[in-house]
């Protein structure tokens, strides 16, 4: 982990959770998995403070824990999860664009609290929406809960893993192994949430309400547990990233071909957005009849025209859409990893076309060579000189400079088994991961 990443994570933790949580998180990020005793010694905080900070980090999914065979529990920071705090505004904006104000506030509440029961999240959002409405109008719980169900159905939110039930006679482990079955991850409990959002009271009414609550507490009154007690929900960040990837893919098809082609690809992605795993290379196979039936109602294209568009997409050199089989017209899949294999998973939107501007210290000619290698994949030195129209001495010097910075790699292709230099091709190619790390390092700073 670079110093720039560590510094950025530390600043994010301090901004969102305060200095104590920052110290604990910084210690875990810097030293790796550690038990509670070593954390207390390293941070210089009281054990209770460290425990509370760990509770906060675990609730927000920024730290994971695991019981060791010898009986202690180790805590490990999730660096990539901390960095994704930077994307919270984008997640919230996306929820607003897809599901309106209730979706926006539901995602915001879940990100703010880490995880919440459905009943609590619905009540909070209904109250907040009621505050923004005109006097005399209120937000009904039913409308918010319907949006909650839609978010779960499209996998933008998911249930948190829970501890398995242990028999009373069994030995209690030092830390529970949290787990949840895939089939239960998006199942919304059937709750009859009846009510409306409430507005905040004035200061006098708040004081009166506080006295009333204290009086009820002294009289022994106890509120009932919510109907979904123990079932907590969290935001599924990977699903948002999948949505961003699909949007980028649709935009790429639109710029490459036309709007109708992008709408066909959008329909295919929408049909398989829930059934396709986040790391899959292709979507689920779909027939042209299924795609035709799922096209938007207002989109007027016939079945024959759709088949022509699918054929064009499948024949395109960039292979946005793949075709398999010919029986019944064949089935089509969207190639999710259609882009070159250099696209690294990252909390930042990275792409190598943005890297040449970062090569300012090498000069514009180096950036030209870099773009050339990025487009042609592999080139000999003489080919680099000819295609880039740069003198041989300068091209050789620039290639060596980028090679010394690990931005460019040299690949040997021998003609004979003895690897003699006179009978070996030397091809230059872009070192993708090093270039991506260079861009990420700049983003972290």
From TrEMBL:
Instruction: Please report the name of this protein according to its UniProt entry.
Output: DNA-directed RNA polymerase III subunit RPC3
Q: Where is the RNA polymerase III subunit RPC82-related helix-turn-helix domain?
A: 8-65
GO annotation terms (biological process) = DNA-templated transcription
Q: Which InterPro entries match?
A: POLR3C_WHD, RNA_pol_III_RPC82-rel_HTH, RNA_pol_III_Rpc82_C, RPC3, WH-like_DNA-bd_sf
Keywords assigned? DNA-directed RNA polymerase, Nucleus, Transcription
Question: Taking every annotated instance into account, which residue ranges of this chain make up the domain RNA polymerase III Rpc82 C -terminal?
Answer: 146-334
Q: Where is the DNA-directed RNA polymerase III subunit RPC3 winged-helix domain?
A: 361-430
Q: What segment(s) does the record annotate as region Disordered?
A: 197-229
Q: Which GO terms describe its molecular function?
A: single-stranded DNA binding
- Subunit-structure text: Component of the RNA polymerase III (Pol III) complex consisting of 17 subunits.
């Amino acid at each position: 982990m670079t110093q720039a990443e560590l510094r950025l994570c530390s600043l994010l933790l301090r901004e969102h959770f305060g200095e104590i949580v920052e110290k604990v998180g910084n210690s875990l990020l810097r030293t790796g998995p550690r038990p509670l005793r070593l954390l207390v010694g390293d941070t210089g905080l009281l054990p209770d403070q460290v425990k509370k900070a760990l509770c906060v980090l675990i609730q927000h999914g920024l730290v994971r824990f695991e019981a060791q065979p010898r009986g202690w529990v180790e805590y490990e920071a999730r660096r990539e999860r901390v960095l994704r705090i930077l994307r919270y505004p984008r997640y919230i904006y996306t929820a607003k664009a897809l599901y309106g104000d209730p979706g926006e506030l539901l995602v915001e509440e879940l990100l703010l609290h880490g995880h919440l029961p459905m009943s609590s999240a619905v009540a909070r959002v209904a109250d907040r929406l009621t505050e923004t409405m005109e006097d005399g109008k209120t937000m009904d719980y039913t409308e918010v809960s319907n949006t909650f169900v839609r978010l779960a159905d499209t996998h933008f939110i998911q249930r948190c893993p829970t501890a398995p039930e242990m028999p009373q006679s069994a030995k209690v482990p030092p830390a529970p192994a949290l787990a949840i079955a895939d089939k239960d991850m998006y199942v919304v409990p059937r709750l009859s949430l009846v009510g409306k959002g409430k507005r905040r009271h004035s200061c006098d009414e708040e004081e009166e309400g506080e006295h009333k609550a204290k009086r009820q507490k002294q009289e022994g009154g106890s509120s009932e547990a919510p109907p979904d007690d123990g079932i907590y929900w969290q935001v599924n960040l990977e699903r948002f990233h999948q949505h961003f990837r699909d949007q980028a893919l649709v935009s790429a098809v639109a710029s490459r071909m036309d709007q109708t082609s992008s709408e066909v690809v959008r329909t295919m992605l929408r049909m398989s957005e829930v059934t396709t795993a986040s790391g899959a290379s292709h979507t689920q196979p779909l027939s042209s009849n299924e795609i035709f039936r799922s096209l938007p109602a207002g989109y007027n294209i016939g079945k024959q025209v759709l088949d022509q568009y699918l054929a064009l997409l499948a024949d395109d050199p960039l292979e946005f859409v793949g075709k398999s089989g010919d029986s019944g017209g064949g089935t089509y899949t969207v190639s999710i990893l259609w882009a070159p294999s250099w696209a690294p998973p990252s909390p930042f939107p990275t792409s190598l076309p943005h890297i040449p501007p970062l090569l300012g210290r090498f000069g514009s000619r180096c950036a030209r060579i870099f773009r050339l290698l990025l487009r042609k994949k592999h080139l000999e030195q003489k080919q680099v000189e000819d295609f880039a129209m740069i003198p041989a001495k300068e091209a050789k010097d620039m290639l060596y400079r980028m090679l010394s910075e690990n931005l460019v790699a040299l690949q040997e292709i021998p003609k004979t088994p003895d690897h003699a230099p006179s009978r070996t091709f030397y091809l230059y190619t872009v070192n993708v991961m090093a270039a991506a790390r260079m861009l990420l390092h700049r983003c972290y700073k």
